[in-house]
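HOLO CASE FILE
Compound: iron/sulfur cluster
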Amino acid sequence: MTGGATDIKSLDLPGIERALAALGQPRFRVRQLVRWLYARGVAGFDEMTDLPGALRSELAERFTLGRLSLSAREVSADGTRKYLWELPDKTTVESVGIPSGDRLTVCFSTQAGCAMGCTFCATGQDGLTRSLLPGEMVDQVLGAAADMNARVSNAVAMGQGEPFANYDATLGALRFMNSPDGLEIGARHLTVSTCGLLPGIRRFSAEPEQFTLAVSLHSAVQSTRDVLMPGVARYPLDQLREALATYGVRTGRRPTLEFALVAGSNDSDSELKALIAFCRGMLCHVNLIPVNPVTGSDARRPDDARVRAFASALTSAGIECTIRTERGVDISAACGQLRQRHRA
Ligand code: SF4
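Model generated. Tokens follow.
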């Protein structure tokens, strides 16, 4: 059934268009094929019953159809579900489904592992295994939707990996998620969270869709940020600020600045002052995230009073800010923890 060499999940929409054109197929077959792959999530070409039998056979000769299989699942008392998926080559990735009222947000991974080496992150401690294919990202969202028996309202590239280190595949995946033939998630409800790869932010500013940008800032003091996030030490904060300001001007959109608060590291008054100076005069929204403890890391969360003091100082300075409510704290909540545990 699947004798080809290329996984069809490696193709973005233009790739599928080219593949079907090369087989002499009319354009409407593109939408049919995308629907089978990314709305219905079928397991094989033979299930694509509105495609002619000869086309199904040709597709099966030329392509494999890779599938994720569920390797582990944890369900939190608050309804959050964490998934560990096994890919066809046996590597594993995590995603999280977070229900909230009538909304379901899925946080998906863009890479297996990550090369960025952030010191507070379980994934960063393990290095990069490989980048994911567009379809492997969409399938994490489809898999969570099926397991939770709900429509996904929001998807966030905030799991394992740096999305802009896998830019083209990530954008390809977002477009399938956004497509009326795929998951039909509104572009503004699709978010990319980067640790600050400037070439990616600049490209993203020029994309035609209204996708949402989040940047892991974690410190507006260069020396602190270089220690917390060594993988982006080559992109200085002044250049990051300039790229974000340009993004705001070009898109009219407000990027979110993620700030994971680590006690004794980035929760001091001087850190707060630098954060306010970084944000002032720029379209942005600060999301404060008290860190979850991670096995193998000595990062500790500040007490609640300190977190509230950060939030109120930002608000007083006219900077929009929220404190992220932690979800799934009774399961392996931080990214990389489930994968780490199941390998131990
Ligand atoms: S926080 Fe994100 S970018 Fe940093 S190491 Fe972890 S997965 Fe990679």
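CASE NOTES: The chain is about 35% helix and 20% strand. The chain has two domains: 6-64, 69-343.
CLOSED: yes
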